[in-house]
Design brief:
Layout (H helix, E strand, L loop, with lengths): L16 E2 L9 E2 L7 E2 L2 E2 H5 L1 E4 H6 L21 H19 L3 E5 H4 L6 H22 L2 E6 L18 H20 L4 E4 L5 E2 L7 H21 L5 E4 L9 E2 L4 H10 L6 E6 H6 L4 H10 L3 E5 L18 H13 L8 E3 L12 H26 L2 H8 L6 H7 L5 H8 L12 H12 L1
Parallel strand pairs: 1-2, 5-6, 5-14, 6-7, 7-8, 8-10, 10-12, 12-13, 13-14
Antiparallel strand pairs: 3-4, 9-11
Helix pairs in contact: 3-5, 5-6, 6-7, 10-11, 11-12, 12-16
Length: 442
């Protein structure tokens, strides 16, 4: 690092400023004012935006049909260390100019993996020293770290669920190293995404054994981190399939069942992604509600899918209707528990200007800020909360309340209702609710 010369990679971009709803400057915020209070917290405190290191600084636009067309000048350098330093300069320049407080990474995003575990560890320690200096210089924090346990060919049959113990052991060593660097950088959380923790074919799979192994692996990782002073939350990120045919962390409900079954719920919460929800044939608000109702809404990855495509396209968010309804759920359940909003989204293959990275993030940040304001207004100013409460009013007193408290038997229900011939149908008023929300959006 002594001979490293820091370069400026976005010389034509000044720090992004809030300029208000009437701003026509594409490199400005129209709605995101980090210090503006929404309720009892600032926008920055509510939203806790993070930049994803992998898509933003490793994504060159490659896809299964061609190599990447996007130039990434920070990848210059004859050694892994030199390339990593250049990439980190670009990342922190971008994050600082964007004006957000957090970033996230996989271990191999920061620096190329070595030929051996010891070489990989040496490289991680090297770049961690530089990351520490960058965090202090730019006042940026690590929202969460993780290990990439899915890209290398060794993980073709999974990591913690691999049928070969040697691969499981290698994954354990890699996670230990990733946990160490996360703790060294004061990471606030740690994420597990089981990219290949599932099966391609059941004919050669012992599902029960693999799930047991995954739980054992998570306990070992949790115990190691706690023993070494990690106070943060562990997140699991559900996804139904891709690249596997079926993943064991299919959706929010599946993960909650897994955590409870294997006694992991006290240390783990969920990191939910928009595109993963749609791949599971759920809405994002559904997944948020499932986690929020159980006090397990830890963090989110912000993106969207293309609704004509059946795969994980990881596009930046653009739908104010979708995000407003999502923010309604997030606010109703008290916000994030430890996490924030990580832009796990990538530029389109034909977006090849470096400034496209700013435009994508600015749009997503502004959208979430506006959705936050609208959702807060709906909850505080409209009849929405009262309507929702009144819909369940029959359970707030008398026999309905006794039912919720577990004080009635099945015989009591039959006695209460009698012949059941006096039931009055009560409308769900779905269209009224939809119009109410649209009224505030429009």
């Amino acid at each position: 690092m002594k001979n490293h010369t820091q370069k400026t990679h976005f010389p034509n971009v000044s720090p992004i400023q809030y300029k208000g709803p009437d701003s026509m400057d594409p490199l400005s915020y129209r709605f995101y004012d980090p210090n503006k209070k929404v309720g009892n917290k600032s926008m920055a405190e509510h939203l806790r935006f993070a930049v994803a290191y992998w898509h933003s600084f490793n994504g060159d636009g490659s896809d299964p049909f061609g190599w990447g067309p996007r130039p990434m000048p920070w990848n210059e350098g004859s050694t892994a260390e030199e390339r990593a330093l250049n990439k980190m300069d670009a990342a922190f320049e971008f994050i600082s100019k964007l004006g957000v407080s957090y970033y996230c990474f996989h271990d191999v995003d920061l620096i190329d993996e070595g030929d051996t575990l010891s070489e990989s560890r040496k490289r991680l320690d090297f770049i961690a020293d530089y990351a520490r200096k960058k965090q202090e210089e730019h006042q940026v924090k690590l929202l969460w770290g993780t290990a990439n346990l899915f890209s290398h060919p060794r993980y073709m049959n999974g990591a913690a669920t691999n049928p070969d113990f040697n691969v499981v052991a290698h994954a354990g060593a890699q996670v230990r190293n990733a946990l160490d660097i996360t703790m060294a950088l004061d990471g606030e959380n740690y994420v597990f995404w089981g990219g290949r923790e599932g099966y391609i074919s059941l004919i050669n799979t012992d599902m029960k054994r693999e799930k047991d192994h995954m739980a054992r692996f998570l306990h070992m990782a949790k115990d190691y981190a706690r023993k070494n002073g990690f106070k943060g939350t562990f997140f699991i990120e559900p996804k139904p399939a891709e690249p596997t045919k079926h993943q064991y962390d299919y959706d929010a409900a599946t993960v909650l069942g897994f955590l409870n079954e294997y006694d992991l719920a006290d240390d783990f919460k969920l990191n939910l992604e928009v595109n993963h929800a749609t791949l599971a044939l759920h809405t994002f608000e559904h997944e948020l509600a499932v986690a929020g109702a159980e006090g397990m809404l830890g963090s989110i990855d912000a993106n969207r899918g293309d609704y004509q495509n059946g795969w994980d396209t990881d596009q930046f968010p653009v739908d104010i209707y979708e995000l407003t309804r999502a923010m309604l759920v997030i606010l109703r359940y008290g916000g994030f528990q430890g996490g924030g909003i990580n832009f796990d989204a990538k530029l389109r293959r034909n977006s090849t200007d470096l400034n496209d990275l700013f435009h994508a993030h600015i749009g997503g940040i502004d959208l979430f800020a506006r959705a936050l304001e609208i959702a807060h207004q709906i909850l505080e100013e409209s009849e929405y909360s009262e309507l929702l409460k009144n819909r369940y009013a029959s359970f707030d007193s008398n026999d309905g309340k006794k039912f919720e408290e577990g004080a009635l038997s099945l015989e009591d229900l039959a006695t209460y209702i009698g012949e059941g011939d006096q039931l009055k149908l009560i409308s769900g008023r779905q269209e009224y609710y939809e119009n109410l929300i649209n009224r505030y959006i429009l």
